[in-house]
Amino acid sequence: MSTVIGVFRDIKTAEEAVKALRNKGFRDNEISIVAKDSEQGRGGSDMEAGSDFGSNDSIADGTTWGGALGGVAGLLAGVGALAIPGIGPIVAAGPLAGVLSGAVTGGVAGGLIDLGIPEERGRQYEEEIKQGGILAVIETSEDKVNDASSILRQNGAKDVESHGGGESTN
Q1: Cα–Cα distance, 86 to 84 (Å, whole number)
Q2: Torsion angles phi and psi, residue 73, rounded to 5
Q3: C-alpha–C-alpha distance, residues 128 and 59, integer Å
Q4: Which of 6, 17, 100, 156 allows an S-S link to 111, with CB 3.0 to 4.6 Å?
Q5: Nearest-CA neighbor of 79 among 48, 110, 111?
């Protein structure tokens, strides 16, 4: 199993990447999205599966996007809101949500280590989330790594890397 990871700066491109991954045959249990929840104190209703993605605004600009993750959650299995020390509230959709809920004390970086991401890179990705980035994490077989990486890049992801199988590529 390999992990492909990349960072998006806005909701729309993250949603488009998830759609493109699914259209290419990636399953929901392979795709996770993690981002800082910029709307503290909101009710959970914005996270209902099937909510509209909503805005083209940048998350880095402080856009309220709880409903946006609901749009991704409509595409993915499982969504959760977590409080991560050092980051604050985050929302996660996909299988990584479960990993992170079990690794709250280690933060996002700790959860990524479990997926084969080196600790130093995990901390860098955690910092991206703190700065408003949306993390896309694809856990897939070796033969689909290039497809996942290409789709993330084609949809605007930065810092796309793959880890697993004893190697790491940028």
Answers
A1: 6
A2: -60, -30
A3: 11
A4: 100
A5: 48
Domain range for 37 is 2-169
Alpha helices per DSSP H over 1-144: 11-23, 66-75, 95-102, 107-113, 119-130
- What whole-number distance in Å separates Cα of residue 148 and Cα of residue 153? 9
Two tokens, residue 78: 């499982």
> How big is the chain, counted in residues?
170
User: Which uninterrupted H or E stretch holds 3?
Assistant: strand 2-8
Q: If pLDDT is split at 50, 70 and 90, which confidence band does 5 have?
A: very high
Helix (H) / strand (E) element for 152: namely helix 145-154
How many structural domains comprise the chain? 1
Enter the pTM of the model.
0.74
